[in-house]
Amino acid sequence: MQSFARGGRDLWHGSRRQFPCSLPLPLCLGLLLLQPSFGQVNHIEAAARLLSEGRTSQSESEARLALKTPATRALALSLLGTIRLQQGKYPESIDYLNRALAMNPNLVGARTTLGEAYVLHGNPDAATTAFREALKRDPTNVNARFDWARLESSRRNFAKSLELAGPILSPLGETEEGLLLLAADYAALGKKDELSLLTAKWERLSGASDNASMDFAGLLANQGLTAQAAEILQKTDGMVAAHPSTPSALRLAQAYLALGNLERAQSNALLALSINSGCAACYLTAAQIAERQGLSEKALSYLVQAKKLEPDNPEVLFEFGRVCLLRNLLEDAMPALEKAVELQPDHDQYVYVLASANVGKGNLPKAAALIGGLVKKHPRDPILNYAMGAVYYLQSNYSEAENSLKQSLAIQPDQIAASYYLALTYDALREDDKALGLLRDALSKHPDHAPSLLELGTILSRQGQYAEAEQDLKRAVSLDPGSPGAHYRLGVVLGKLGRTAEAEQEFAQSRRVHEEKESQSHLHMRLLLPE
User: Whole-model pTM?
Assistant: First the structure.
């Protein structure tokens, strides 16, 4: 399922764009080059007109008649290749177009269409060759240049894409596909000023589709240009309300979710569901909205419905498992997360959350194996090194924990979670000075991190520094009154200071909180997830 927050769609599957030429793509330049007599081009012109009207079978009949005349045979083959491309028969399209080019290598339009056929058939290298050859023969060809640019953008070569698009910025700025290409490149390269300037051009477009507008707004939103994105969505909102459909309402719900407008997101998600109650993607989006609203139980109910509709959808399974995990429903979370990872084993987020679930279940060797695999893939990722160190600590493997946590902090020094676990590691090794130094430094930057305050107070108490420990532990209790450990440690310190009645109150509170508290495995799971 596609998320609005990621911004942009696959431009190759959008509406077929036409730039300067009014005939189907392979024919424009070819007709000018061959210049046969009127009688010879009659079948070609009829085929082109019929294809533009969507009358494919009649168009093919005319093209086959044109095959009988040597002067129009190459054009007829090119046209048949275009027809097969529109039908999604890519190998046949490629065969026809190559035969056309073998007869007449100067059919630039045919080379451009051949490149598109190669892209859709999954051969980007051959497509690049076709586009390059087309531009070698006609450097001014807008279609070839655009297709090559969007191919490079789809391969994440955004700078190359912009370089190719440079000579045709003006015509690109007059079509929704062109503007989406430029917006995707600018957004990927962090060119916010250039991206912002495209907004005025987008607003001048006549008849931009709802989906394209939401794609464009998504790219703006992802770069923090929320005001411009919201303005575009407001116009789209009215069109969707006037002509509602499940796809358009769903896309709009995802768009508003990305902008943080949860009220509008929810109303459109419910509109989508009212039109089609069997829409798993709609339930998934409604769940994401409910979770953002702090309603995890409601989110879970939506995800149950989505899972019933699409039990093998990895995104639905992952979201279901993740929300179950957050609610400490580990028995429900585990099979869903395991299946999501089985379906998409290279999805790093799925693997990471499954590892967290294994920590919650106490299966630390499995968690270590999962996170270890991620660290091998991304050795410079600070969160993964932190997670690896946290699991090592929970396994009492303090030497490896220290190495991983130090590596995490070397990459990203201001992490509170890695500093906290490294302090726990030093505490376990009874290297109090190192632990205290880390905790004090971390709290100078993150003064409201209750677990660090609790750990600092614990070490100070052990050293007999009860007055200072009391202050840190009281602050830990005020920040996290549901922590049984904070109440207990504060009670110990108050007892050492001779304030027995106050100490008993803290011990009693610790017992009450402990009875209400979820399992210790849930505490470990919660700590493992990044801040």
Answer: 0.69
